[in-house]
Design a protein that fits this description.
Blueprint lengths: L1 E6 L11 H4 L4 H11 L4 E6 L3 H14 L2 E5 L8 H9 L4 E5 L21 E4 L4 H10 L1
Helix pairs in contact: 3-4
């Protein structure tokens, strides 16, 4: 099974940015843990701080992967375009967030992705990605 993880803005700073919220591990290091833990999965990875690049990645993966694990980060709450991209592709999408977005600022309580996602996982730290992968298995 081929799955694609797509991360949005500022997630390239995991391990450095607000460790009290996001932890001390880089996503690249965590990705190696996931690949070891799920050897039967082909896991592709893409990260960008640019909204259009994320839409392009969703469109590519949406027609070539069996599923997408998407953490659109702040774009979750602002991007109609990302929500439309998720709606437009046949691959199912699981939306993930490292932090519990509902315990944070009010603007983070709304998602343009959720209405089109297979499911949503929030608040379990990097384990949210592991749970999303398990949802596809």
């Amino acid at each position: 099974m081929k799955l694609t993880i797509i991360n949005g803005p500022n997630l390239n700073l995991l391990g450095k940015r607000e460790p009290e919220i996001y932890g001390n591990q880089s996503f690249e290091d965590f990705l190696q843990v996931l690949r070891t833990k799920f050897p039967n999965l082909e896991i592709d990875y893409f990260q960008s701080n640019i909204e259009g690049e994320l839409i392009d990645a969703i469109q590519r993966a949406g027609f070539s992967s069996d599923g997408i694990v998407l953490n659109a980060a702040a774009y979750t709450h602002t991007s109609i375009g990302i929500g439309d991209a998720v709606k437009a592709v046949p691959a199912p999408v699981v939306e993930v967030h490292i932090s519990n977005t509902f315990s944070r600022e009010t603007f983070r309580h709304h998602s343009f992705v959720s209405p089109h996602a297979k499911g949503v996982i929030v608040g379990f730290g990097l384990k949210s990605y592991e749970l999303a992968l398990q949802a596809f298995i």
